[in-house]
Amino acid sequence: MNRSSVSNHTHPGSPIPRNYTNVLVICLVLLGLCVVASLVLGSRPVRFHELIDGLFHPNADSYGADVVRKRISRTVFGLCCGAALGVSGALMQAVTRNPIADPSILGVNTGASLFVVCGIAFLNISTANQYIWLALAGALITAVFVFGIGSMGRGGATPLKLVLAGAATSAALSSLVSAIMIPRSYVMDQFRFWQVGSVGSANWSAIATFAPFLIVGILIAIITAPALNALALGDDAATGLGVRTGILRLAAALAGVLLCGAATALAGPIGFVGLLSTHVVRLMLGPDLRFVIPLSAVSGAIILMVSDVTGRLIGSPGELEVGVVTAFIGAPILILLAMRAKVRSL
């Protein structure tokens, strides 16, 4: 690849995709519709005047207005988690140069789950602040382990080796989770609601705990995006452009783990959001991460909100947890992507 093609791909002044404005407007409109749907749809549908009362009239004491107020925190939390998982997926795909990398596929979610269940079983933890630090530690250790295993042998960390290492690690850690839970019924009762992945228990305290991790992770992602474009061209080309590939990978990977671990700690292991959102954006805009990362946040939020509302409607009068819905949607799409891409590197 010649120098000019590298510059065109990574230069900060390179042109904005022609359809960027249209895609952005469509995504924002869809996001707005998802927010409205999340507030009005569920086991108890809300009428328009109840929605207005719940949003703008704090003294309104109707049942519908109370339902809207309770759904506001759930909606905000779902938006935050979807954005975090979308950006995390984009970062992990960029760092590993693997088009089907995702926190759930690489075992990062399972690592977070193991540490959380250990905390419940052996440390008696029960609050969001306690969950979040254990989940981050588990996600980070698992990510390092999977990348280390996938880097062994000839060829280094190829996409196929990383996926296989992630699948094997996830299976092993899932067995450990079961081994810890089965003899301890109280751990199983507390953990099983968290394990399926849900935004239904969201509250403003959890959102406040999550917000700093979300902000820091997305800021790092946006700052590193131009250099990650260079990394997609190969380590030699990136080094020739003055990119410190080791530091870049570490910073981007830490941001991805931070976003994924924090979301997993509070919402449970929700899979496939990062995979789906990033592929949708890349399909529409191309590979430039300066545009892929911000729109992955928006599309991730849309996917999670659509899944949450779908789960409420399908499971009415109860609800089907969002992690189950994303798995139903994501698993066949993952198979399709693997068949079409044949696990090519980015």
UniProtKB/TrEMBL annotation:
The chain crosses the membrane at residues 20-41, 76-94, 106-125, 132-150, 162-183, 204-227, 247-277, 289-310, 322-339. SUPFAM superfamilies: ABC transporter involved in vitamin B12 uptake, BtuC. GO terms for molecular function: transmembrane transporter activity. Keywords: Cell membrane, Membrane, Transmembrane, Transmembrane helix, Transport. It is a multi-pass membrane protein. It comes from Paenibacillus mucilaginosus 3016. The keyword Membrane applies. GO terms for biological process: siderophore-iron import into cell. InterPro entries: ABC_BtuC-like, ABC_transptr_permease_BtuC. GO terms for cellular component: plasma membrane. Its main location: membrane. It holds the Pfam family FecCD. Belongs to the binding-protein-dependent transport system permease family. FecCD subfamily. This is Iron ABC transporter permease. It is found in: Cell membrane.
